[in-house]
Amino acid sequence: MESDPAAEGPPVQHKTDSAGAPDETHKLDSERGKMHAQIHAQMHAQVAAAQVHDVLSLLLVFRFLNALCVRTFFQPDEYFQALEPAWSIAFGGNSGAWLTWEWQHQLRSSLHPAIFGLAYKAVDEVMSFLHLFPPFRAFILVALPGALQSVFAALGDFYTWKLAMDIYGRESNAPWAALWVTVFNPWQWYCSTRTFSNSLETALTIAGLCYWPWEMLAGAQANKTAPFQQRGRVTSLRISLVLAAIAVLLRPTNLLIWLVILGFSLARLMLTGESPLPKSTVWALFREIVLCGTAVLGISLISDRLYFGFWTFPPYKWLYFNISQSLAVFYGHMPWHYYLSQGIPLLTTTFLPFTIVGIYKAASSSPSSNLSALQPNILRTLAFTTLAMLVALSLISHKEVRFIYPLLPILHILAAPYIAAFFTKPSGGATTTTTRPAASTSSSRSSRVTLRHKLTLAYILSLNLLLAGYLSLFHQAAPISVLSFLRSEFERIHPDALALGSTDLSTTSTTTPKKKKEEELFALFLTPCHSTPWRSHLVYPALRARALTCEPPLHTAPGSVERRAYLDEADRFYLQDDAGVYGVEFLAEEMWPNLLGGEGKGKGKGEEMPRYIIGFEGIEPVLQAFFEEGPTKGMGVKLRRVWSAWNGVFNDDWRRRGRLVVWDTGVYGDSYKERIEVEGEEGKGRVVDEL
């Protein structure tokens, strides 16, 4: 919107008569100018508010569609560190939720799953009141977490744009570049709507940074009034601190980000070359840190007390087990350069060159005490926050890209001005090369630019869309779709066992059901542990299932011989001998030992014969060798493929390569084979299509 000359022009000069009274004509002109300026400011505020509303609304719709399109499996923490405890919160201890060892030893805060647990409970109560059909209720509950997470993802995108707007100015193209990079980033599409604690942590972090009082980094001449004496700034600081405290409770490593931000804010002398902050400002800052931190900590303690049944402090347990007991190494050891060589490139993909330039330019900029020094000082702080986080996390043996996910919005903001400068130019044709993003001015408006390097931009966007589409729809999609198949089969075979609440039926693999019709073990997963979601997708408590486990060696000392020799259940199943054979010995000695003694179905752990066995196609020779060629031949097990699905082009784990397959053991009535015979050629055609 163009500025009105009356609002920006020089002040009106007032002529006076000999008596010193103001000239009426000029006085009227001055009042008209002021009124015009007020109207212009009001209109500008209304346009800005409408723009903010439109951006947020579009992002909410976009991320909701994003959540619906993500139909692949990525990491088990998405389900076992969020949705399984959430399911337990909503439907009780007998609901069949799989609570891993972290929850048994209080390593995780209950705040994150409580969000989804409350949503599960509220939505299920509404559906129960409406007497909706159980399969439809199950479908809604499966889709609910992604829909809820899409709101957090959209807010993270929104605050990325808003912080960029605050840094670069409303009339700069950089904020819009940051927004478009966020929207077209394949990693964001792939992960932002997943229910990782890292995804919520990322949204909380960028929102907290947006509310942070960055004016503390401005020059002394810009801070004639203490920052927290300005209207609304204390409230903004409190919001920032509350969001930061929640993020730290979810992921204790998030504390590194805020320590760097706080350190640079307090060390304004290094950034501006001026006198340090007033004592009143420092006192107010620490007062609010204590108050907000204590309030959030109190809420967390109460939540954990209600969930675990006793007082506990998960961040301490997390540090104890992962650092003192060195259990993090049990889940993988990566080289020191992992985040530099793989982490940042995976996060930024095609925008990596602009990200490197943005970090370098911001980090190498010189501190200034000028009135306009706030922008470079903020960028410099964000750059050093990124570098400090990367260095600190590189010292930890176990590394995952998700651990540096909260840095991604910062990287988008740092790269945004260089992306805008590369792909746009003033509409008049002139281009300007700068070593630092220029502050916004009235002569550089976002509406006065045109695109350039269009072919390069088209290639980049096309590649990003292809990556996002493949990863979200095809790469490791089978672990999700197989659960839909099992759930639909259970609905067909047991239509009277579709209750969603707590029941007397035990759904764990360690106890035996009491009623005859409840003895069926519906599914056995012979896959690497946590290869599929669990109760959040199986839904029904009566759908009993068992899977190979991978509990860490909590009973062993760090560095001991016992820990080095420890093999979990999944490792023992896939342990190969010198001839490359695996699995048969495990099945005979641990899964069905009583079959070899001719006692039929056993009564102990893992000795029940399931209706369906699920595994990747590489284990088919193992199953055939055990059931058809070994001592168990003639026990009535006739394996038959009833479902299979492609699982992507590649997989770095040889155990997960190939199609995911469901085999019917044939030991129960109303089997898939019998259904085909009843349904005739039509049913046979459906099976062929599924295979």
Automatic annotation (TrEMBL):
Report the transmembrane regions from the record: 136-155, 241-264, 284-307, 319-338, 344-363, 378-397, 403-423, 455-474
Family the entry assigns: Belongs to the glycosyltransferase 22 family. PIGB subfamily.
Name a single GO biological process. Answer: GPI anchor biosynthetic process
Traced from the root, the source organism's taxonomic lineage reads: Eukaryota, Fungi, Dikarya, Ascomycota, Pezizomycotina
In the bilayer, the protein is annotated as: Multi-pass membrane protein
- Compositionally biased residues, Basic and acidic residues: 23-34
Cellular component terms per the entry's GO annotation: endoplasmic reticulum membrane
**Signal peptide position in this chain?**
none
Its localization reads:
Endoplasmic reticulum membrane
Presence of keyword Glycosyltransferase = yes
The protein's UniProt keywords, in alphabetical order, are: Endoplasmic reticulum, Glycosyltransferase, GPI-anchor biosynthesis, Membrane, Transferase, Transmembrane, Transmembrane helix
Locate the region Disordered: 1-35
Q: In which pathway does it act?
A: Glycolipid biosynthesis; glycosylphosphatidylinositol-anchor biosynthesis
E.C. numbers: 2.4.1.-
Q: Keyword Transmembrane helix on this protein?
A: yes
> Main EC class of this protein?
transferase
Query: Per its record, what are the GO molecular function terms?
Result: alpha-1,2-mannosyltransferase activity
What protein does this entry describe? Mannosyltransferase
Please list the coiled coil stretches.
none
Function field? Mannosyltransferase involved in glycosylphosphatidylinositol-anchor biosynthesis. Transfers the third mannose to Man2-GlcN-acyl-PI during GPI precursor assembly.
